[in-house]
Design a protein that fits this description.
Helix content is 9%, strand content 33%. It has 140 residues and is mainly beta. A 4-stranded antiparallel beta sheet has the order 1-2-7-6, with no helix packed on it. The protein has a 3-stranded antiparallel beta sheet with strand order 3-4-5, with no helix packed on it. It contains 1 helix and 7 strands, in the order αβββββββ. The chain has one helix spanning 19-30; strands at 38-42, 46-52, 61-66, 69-76, 95-102, 112-116, 119-125. It is elongated. The chain has a domain at 36-78 and 94-127: Immunoglobulin-like, CATH 2.60.40.790.
Length: 140
C-alpha cells in the first residue's frame, strides 16, 4: 500500500532510484558525500529534524528561514597552522555544507533548536489543520 505524502512537509518516498546516482556523482565531483544527513520524525503535534554535524561547534551552524524555506548551513574552516603541514593523507572535509527544507504546514514562530554531541535537533510544531468551511449559497 502506498501512502500519499504529497501534502506532508519533508515527505519523500523510501525508494529513490536517483539517490545513489546523485551521491556517486557528488563524490566524483567533490570527493565526498553531499552535505550532511538528516532524520525527520513526525509526531502528533510536531516534526523533529535531527542533523548529524559531528566536528562542528554551535557557532559554526546557522538556521535561516525565508518564506517557506528553511536553510541549515554549517561551516568548517581549516586551521591556519595546518596549511603548511606535510600531510600524508587528508580526508576531513572543510568548507560550507548546506541543506534546504520546505516549511509548509510548520509554525516557524515556535520552532526550537538545540545542538548536543554533534547532533542538531529542531522541534517544529505543526500549524493547526485548516478545516474547509462548508456552506450553502442561497439562490435568489
Amino acid at each position: 500500500m502506498m501512502m500519499n505524502t504529497s501534502l506532508r512537509p519533508f515527505s519523500m518516498s523510501t525508494y529513490d532510484p536517483f539517490r545513489l546516482f546523485d551521491e556517486k556523482a557528488h563524490r566524483m565531483m567533490y570527493g565526498s558525500a553531499p552535505a550532511f544527513r538528516t532524520d525527520i520524525l513526525e509526531e502528533n503535534d510536531r516534526y523533529v529534524l535531527q542533523a548529524d554535524l559531528p566536528g562542528f561547534r554551535k557557532e559554526d551552524i546557522r538556521i535561516d528561514l525565508e518564506e517557506d524555506t528553511m536553510t541549515i548551513t554549517a561551516e568548517r574552516r581549516s586551521e591556519q597552522s595546518e596549511e603548511n603541514a606535510n600531510y600524508i593523507r587528508r580526508e576531513r572535509s572543510y568548507g560550507s555544507f548546506t541543506r534546504r527544507f520546505g516549511t509548509e504546514g510548520i509554525d516557524t514562530e515556535r520552532m526550537e533548536a538545540s545542538f548536543t554531541d554533534g547532533v542538531l535537533t529542531l522541534s517544529m510544531p505543526k500549524l493547526p489543520e485548516q478545516v474547509p468551511v462548508s456552506r450553502r449559497i442561497e439562490i435568489r
